[in-house]
From TrEMBL, chains A, B, C, D:
<dbReference type="Pfam" id="PF02774">
    <property type="entry name" value="Semialdhyde_dhC"/>
</dbReference>
<dbReference type="GO" id="GO:0046983">
    <property type="term" value="F:protein dimerization activity"/>
</dbReference>
<dbReference type="GO" id="GO:0009088">
    <property type="term" value="P:threonine biosynthetic process"/>
</dbReference>
<feature type="domain" description="Semialdehyde dehydrogenase NAD-binding">
    <location>
        <begin position="5"/>
        <end position="131"/>
    </location>
</feature>
<keyword id="KW-0521">NADP</keyword>
<dbReference type="InterPro" id="IPR000534">
    <property type="entry name" value="Semialdehyde_DH_NAD-bd"/>
</dbReference>
<dbReference type="GO" id="GO:0050661">
    <property type="term" value="F:NADP binding"/>
</dbReference>
<dbReference type="InterPro" id="IPR005676">
    <property type="entry name" value="Asp_semi-ald_DH_pep-lack"/>
</dbReference>
<dbReference type="GO" id="GO:0004073">
    <property type="term" value="F:aspartate-semialdehyde dehydrogenase activity"/>
</dbReference>
<dbReference type="GO" id="GO:0051287">
    <property type="term" value="F:NAD binding"/>
</dbReference>
<dbReference type="InterPro" id="IPR012280">
    <property type="entry name" value="Semialdhyde_DH_dimer_dom"/>
</dbReference>
<comment type="similarity">
    <text>Belongs to the aspartate-semialdehyde dehydrogenase family.</text>
</comment>
<keyword id="KW-0560">Oxidoreductase</keyword>
<dbReference type="InterPro" id="IPR036291">
    <property type="entry name" value="NAD(P)-bd_dom_sf"/>
</dbReference>
<feature type="active site" description="Acyl-thioester intermediate">
    <location>
        <position position="150"/>
    </location>
</feature>
<protein>
    <submittedName>
        <fullName>Aspartate-semialdehyde dehydrogenase</fullName>
    </submittedName>
</protein>
<dbReference type="Pfam" id="PF01118">
    <property type="entry name" value="Semialdhyde_dh"/>
</dbReference>
Amino acid sequence: MHSYQIGILGATGAVGQKFIRLLEDHPWFTITKLGASKRSAGKKYKQAVHWVEKTELPAAVADITVSECHSSNFGEVDFVFSGLDSSVAGDIEQEFASAGIPVISNAKNYRMHDQVPLLVPEVNPGHAELISSQHFDSDGKGWIVTNPNCVSVPLSMSLKPLDEAFGIDSVVVTSMQSVSGAGYPGVPSLDIIANVVPYIGGEESKVQTEATKLLGQVKGNTTEFRSFPIQATAVRVPTIEGHLLSVSVKLKNPPSDLDEAKKAFAEWQNPIADLGLPSSPRQPVRLYEENRYPQPRLHADREGGMQTAVGRLREGTVMDLGYVTMAHNTIRGAAGGAILNGELLAAKGYFES
Amino acid sequence: MHSYQIGILGATGAVGQKFIRLLEDHPWFTITKLGASKRSAGKKYKQAVHWVEKTELPAAVADITVSECHSSNFGEVDFVFSGLDSSVAGDIEQEFASAGIPVISNAKNYRMHDQVPLLVPEVNPGHAELISSQHFDSDGKGWIVTNPNCVSVPLSMSLKPLDEAFGIDSVVVTSMQSVSGAGYPGVPSLDIIANVVPYIGGEESKVQTEATKLLGQVKGNTTEFRSFPIQATAVRVPTIEGHLLSVSVKLKNPPSDLDEAKKAFAEWQNPIADLGLPSSPRQPVRLYEENRYPQPRLHADREGGMQTAVGRLREGTVMDLGYVTMAHNTIRGAAGGAILNGELLAAKGYFES
Amino acid sequence: MHSYQIGILGATGAVGQKFIRLLEDHPWFTITKLGASKRSAGKKYKQAVHWVEKTELPAAVADITVSECHSSNFGEVDFVFSGLDSSVAGDIEQEFASAGIPVISNAKNYRMHDQVPLLVPEVNPGHAELISSQHFDSDGKGWIVTNPNCVSVPLSMSLKPLDEAFGIDSVVVTSMQSVSGAGYPGVPSLDIIANVVPYIGGEESKVQTEATKLLGQVKGNTTEFRSFPIQATAVRVPTIEGHLLSVSVKLKNPPSDLDEAKKAFAEWQNPIADLGLPSSPRQPVRLYEENRYPQPRLHADREGGMQTAVGRLREGTVMDLGYVTMAHNTIRGAAGGAILNGELLAAKGYFES
Amino acid sequence: MHSYQIGILGATGAVGQKFIRLLEDHPWFTITKLGASKRSAGKKYKQAVHWVEKTELPAAVADITVSECHSSNFGEVDFVFSGLDSSVAGDIEQEFASAGIPVISNAKNYRMHDQVPLLVPEVNPGHAELISSQHFDSDGKGWIVTNPNCVSVPLSMSLKPLDEAFGIDSVVVTSMQSVSGAGYPGVPSLDIIANVVPYIGGEESKVQTEATKLLGQVKGNTTEFRSFPIQATAVRVPTIEGHLLSVSVKLKNPPSDLDEAKKAFAEWQNPIADLGLPSSPRQPVRLYEENRYPQPRLHADREGGMQTAVGRLREGTVMDLGYVTMAHNTIRGAAGGAILNGELLAAKGYFES
């Protein structure tokens, strides 16, 4: 049986709140420490937070006293989840890792670090082995694992079955991203009600890069990225949760017809299906046949927000296939993805000392 | 001086209302006849219509008695604009043309007809010459001209400068379309508030085809389509007016750098600039430099809703360039585009008898 | 133990779908028959329905063959829930009741019938006794019970504690109603995105009347309505689920201060608390202290969508108190309310033969 | 002929931008100075501002160098419009007035000042006479005039005809306010998309007070407020522009029927109709007969955004009448209202020295 005490870094932010909500009744992980900025430190969590989740603030967490994000305040935890803003995540996560505390991070800072796994359990569970190459602390007890950007999650998960079957040659993607992706307060309503904003700062470079690491191979103590190009356009639309991607993909060995492409999704094997991870969706990648599906408002919550939906799979005229894909950006694409990473690493024994 | 009496077919529908609003103070065209279904015929327009425009129903039109859409009721008009639904436009437009009444149509029915020009004045004004090949009536007085689908308008207008400068090789486009594109009542609010619907019936095939006719050449009595492929994904987003397109384009002779691409837009010559058409925008294609522009809610109304906006022009990783483009779907992409077609044909003398 | 076979009338409509979703794992009620219009009859439910719920169509229902809504097709059921449109509910519900099949209806048709209880279990559970006065069939086995309009539910539930403590003198209410209240397709998106429509046909008269029956007394074989006036304004706002009401209330014996008013809510006793009804919320009326609460998008789903929320309780300048109240309009205010009525009547033995 | 040089205080904010847009081609007033915070001072306006208006930044203003808001920088102007935030408006406006520069302010700080007119030209033009009682500077050349809160504008304008005809006894109002009322960045989209927030800090006390000053009488050197109570609930809804109010009103001498109430609106005389003010709407208060009107998105822009719309006028059950009213909150309710105040004062000779 797994039983761990964990801490949340960036506990008062939007991602931090999602961690707390998703972990409320978690069978393996119990929140015992909360970290936030100096402004919140010393307050009870219920007083420090502007709670924006739809569910009640969990009673077990409400009265925990918030600490500053320093390893000395997190002595008893087995590891931490980090929902820190990237402006501070770099230093803080390094400090924790150096002090021997594993960090499962949602922040972007270490995603491109040579020895840090960028991990989606259904896509590249084996990349976890990079952990042993890390040198944040001298005895290897502290390390960092990251999950990708919220767009790269459904992109890599939907590309994975196609890559295994046909090989990816190149990808053109337009991501229509919900406002929750910008955190809170985030996107001003005057900007986005009845509107589309055709730019999200820094987003496209992440989308163009991360999937090539996720679909890459660990070679020695680093990851060999894939060489296929991704051309990305990221826009903001007035949805709440769920990023919808329009994807066109050229394949190395294209299927002979659409049925063969559908079969690639139907026959794809989830590599973590047998691990019994609590947050693992039964069907990580679901192919909808209905033309009008998937839709962010209707389907982002399916399987606890952990399922990647694919729809409108069809033959292309410029590239081989076209499809749309969608995942819950703050669950599958952020806190939920990190928790699944934590579960994978727990199942593999990375937290045993 | 141009002075014409005109009729509106489909006058009570969303496109018909837009015709009436846009023609309220038109210097050349005066509405004298309104055509609608049998249900509305015999009523005064103000009683027959569920007016959804933001401006007042024009007083000069309010008391016109609506007729059924048959040429015998439109004896005195010089030509008609058709905002008919495609389910009835085929027969009715043919009947008018056969009776010697020119039809400037927004409907899709004759867009692919060999002798019917699919016309965007700034893109292919010369295609008007196809009119003389038509045989709807024996003496050639009745004919049909169409404008393209609301997505094909900004797509063709934004591709035109690039085509002239570099030659189009292939295009991948995702169009994020506003609810007004579906008419009234159109899209149920339960479907689209805080949502994206990744499918619009019949839309993608139009987008994949029409621009290749628009950018084609008239050869003898038909149009030679261009051969470049367009791969389209059409989705519905909760905007009111303005379709925003994310475009990736491969070019035959790509520019050496981004500045050269920008120069293609800056130096492109509007072929109808000198005609003094009342609805002609000063700047038909505007390139925005600001990352966050253009946006449907902020910019769709610029230049009376007749301007096509381009933004986020940048080098691509899969195809040569990426950009977004946007136009007002019910003005530039429908009624306003048809009116500009009418003005072009008036200026060229097509309505002289 | 309660175990009943039930039918759903109007099964393909928006309310019917909600019944099916809410009853998916119901411990007492099992759906065995589905009724809809002639157009759907004979089809499997999954083929007849345009499913708009966020969850999957329950497998146990998907393959049930839909029947026309006639009692002869519903022989084996213990009772039916009716989500019929009011245009047909009058005749059909009467036919079922006359045939000896109890009808728990969400339709408005019989709400004002002298012998038909208009029932909210927490407000007027005793009104169920009116059932015995009904004469739809000669042996009294068939009868009709209704739940109120979706606005009258939170209005009556929030007024109940105040009425018990202070007596209602008069009420002014503005209801801001979500689009799901109009069913599907319902409100056109062009009408409501970024807009408010200050009129909902027929709504205000229901709001002004129903609460005075709910808070009234059964006297003999009829209900004595209360005499206090309600002045209602009903507007449509672009929310999905949850009607929010702004209420001003004058009281017969006003509290001496705000705390006394709060105490009325805190100390109010839920009359069905001890019955163990499966859909009964632990806290039927929750008073929020936070200024910004309740909000439709955040709180409509609390307690399975069965809780009425109250907030912003404060002293008034014209009337004694002001507050806002909100309930999930398609659960608490429609299908969920009807199910709770069914549970109440089951617990009281009304379905024993 | 009137010709004045004017300055804008708070020029980079949302209200300041609206002043600049509305004054672009103003026949009387020319913007020559712009004031903003120290952060913007010294920059050209086009560099200092994050322009959020739909129209282009006016070229004549784009290159004006922004100054700090001190009278010494505004030597040549005849007067200033203030769009300052209330956190700084108190001191700055006083400093300008003390230096002999008249201030037409949209800020709330001096609205309740005894000698400062709270002015809506169609409601209480005579209140301008209070100016002569002010002592901000010793020779009376500097003074302050304010316009009311954006809700109080349509409330007072719609109550005025009823007050003249029947006398106001008491008012209950729920205001459904658009996001532009909170400025930019203002309301986070996560709070308001598909939602209603039942609280706007500080708003209700303004709504409950200002109309009683506007409808009051100048007596000597102060305004005698009216004594009728207003009970207000202010909520935020996801509209862009236009606050819609649901109003219930009790009258001292109620009309005998609804027609008499309609006649009060029809026969009301606009007291400034003959002054020829450039921003004055032809019909300041328009009564819509259509049940579904007025709507913020359709009608807020009517008459340049300066018209107050009234609709759904009907008899009440608790109070004598019910109606809805709506005005463009950032034009009629803010910058446009202030400009009309400036025009009124110009026409009355207050800027002659």
